Amino acid sequence: MQADIRRLGATAHPDQYFGTCGDLLTGEVWVLRVPGGGFDQAVLDGVPHFGVTLHFQDVAAPREHFVELATRITETDRDYWAAKGVTIREVRVAEDGTGVSVSTDQADAARADILARYGAEVIEVRPVR
Length: 129
Description:
Layout: H1 2-12, E1 17-23, E2 28-33, H2 39-46, E3 53-58, H3 63-76, H4 78-83, E4 88-93, E5 100-104, H5 107-118, E6 122-127
Parallel strand pairs: 2-3, 5-6
Antiparallel strand pairs: 1-2, 4-5
């Protein structure tokens, strides 16, 4: 069922879809999405969910938005950060839809600059471990 929701979200509602997570023991699935539009109803109408409780969880932006931000940080702005002596090692999209986490060797020194450039969608700047 989660695969069906992912497929529906990615193909028909990419402007709303973020992700899913489920609990097999309780028979619950959470659909993380930007509220509004027709995605919720499309899931209810188009994805069989007998015996499963669906929960719709609000997120600020669709997954694609955060993937684009991660790409901007790691690829588009690579030279910008290199000129400042900052090596961005990894950017991960948070699975709860809250933003991205940036890993760099220069986390303490670069944190303020990274947050200033990308704003609150960067939820964490952490050292590489």
